[in-house]
Each structure stands twice: as C-alpha cells, then as structure tokens.
C-alpha cells in the first residue's frame, strides 16, 4: 500500500510540470465571421431568399385569414355537417401552412450552413496555421453559440488570436 501511494505521488509530481507548459490561445469565431465580406455576401443571398419566400407565405396566410373571417361570418347559415367540413378544411390549410413554414426555415438553415461551410473551413485552416506558428496546444472558443462568455479573463491579450485570424482571412 505504501509503495502504491509513493508511486501515485511520484506520478503526480511528474505530471504537474507537463500541465503547466500547455499553451492555450483563444478566439471569437463570431467576431471573425462578422468581419468578412464573404459572410456579408452570404447573408445578403440568404436575406433575398427569405424575402421571396416570406412574400409567398404572407400571401397564403392572408388568404387563409380572409377565408377564416368569411367562414366566421357565414357559419351561422351552414348546417352542422358543412360547418365541420369547412373547419376541417381551414385547419388542414393552417397545418399545411405551418409545415411549409417549417420546411422553409430548415431550407434556409441548410442553405446558410452550406454557403458558410467553405468560409468556416478556411477559418479552421488559418486557426491551425496560427496555432502551429505560435506553438499553441489548444485554442478555446471565447464564447458559446448563444453569446455567453466562456473566457472571462485572460492575463495576456496576445493569447487572443482573433485579430490575427481576421487579418489572415482578409489577405487570402
């Protein structure tokens, strides 16, 4: 037991210097992406797609609302069977509109992802090059995808490689 304890303490003693020599950098990918003209071009294309599809969905939604208002006005004149049929039809159209909207939103997300992928791959490549040049063992993301900070304090601003990544991406 005593030998195992000594062996364990010896292993910990050897591992502490190894941990203290890890070089860590950090960057803010959202800031990098916000500085690139290619991303602005992608966003313009996506916004154009959204505007086109929104107009179509708005027209369908407006028509559905008008049909619903007309039904509400005249439902007192309909018999029970006709009322149930009309309600089913309106409900079905509403569900189809919601499904179309969901499909459309998924298409927009996929298109944005597809268009941004080459830019993100370039960013990853530049990050790797910088990490190798600076002998960094690890690069952390400065924040989460929701904007929450992961790194609250860094003693040395030179560990922030965000400006270097932006400059390199703008060069290429």
Short synopsis of the structure:
By secondary structure, this protein is mainly alpha-helical.
Helix and strand layout, with pairings?
Blueprint: H1 2-20, E1 24-27, H2 29-34, H3 37-74, H4 80-133, E2 138-141, H5 162-171
Parallel strand pairs: 1-2
CATH class: Alpha Beta
Structural class: mainly alpha
CATH homologous superfamily title: Skp domain
End-to-end C-alpha gap: 61 Å
Q: What about the largest sheet?
A: 2 strands, parallel
Output the CATH topology.
Answer: Protein Binding, DinI Protein, Chain A
Gyration radius (Cα, Å) is: 29 Å
What do the pLDDT scores average to?
84
Large-scale geometry: elongated
Which blocks of ≥5 consecutive residues have pLDDT under 50? none
The total strand number stands at 2
Number of domains: 1
Q: Helicity level, as a percent range?
A: over 70%
- Cross-sheet strand order for the largest sheet: 1-2
The helix/strand order is HEHHHEH
The CATH architecture assignment turns out to be 2-Layer Sandwich
Total helical segments: 5
Strand content: under 5%
């Amino acid at each position: 037991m005593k030998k195992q304890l000594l062996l364990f303490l010896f292993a910990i003693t050897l591992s502490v210097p190894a941990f203290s020599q890890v070089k860590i950098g950090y960057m803010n990918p959202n800031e990098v992406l916000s500085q690139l003209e290619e991303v602005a071009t992608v966003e313009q294309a996506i916004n154009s797609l959204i505007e086109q599809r929104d107009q179509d969905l708005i027209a369908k939604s407006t028509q559905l609302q008008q049909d619903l208002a007309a039904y509400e006005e005249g439902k007192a004149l309909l018999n029970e069977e006709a009322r149930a049929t009309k309600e089913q039809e309106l409900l079905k159209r509403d569900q189809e509109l919601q499904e179309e909207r969901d499909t459309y939103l998924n298409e927009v997300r996929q298109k944005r992802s597809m268009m941004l992928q080459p830019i993100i791959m370039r960013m990853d490549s530049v990050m790797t090059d910088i990490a190798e040049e600076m002998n960094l063992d690890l690069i952390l993301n400065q924040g989460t995808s929701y904007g929450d900070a992961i790194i609250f304090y860094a003693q040395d601003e030179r560990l922030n490689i965000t400006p270097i990544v932006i400059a390199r991406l703008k060069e290429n």
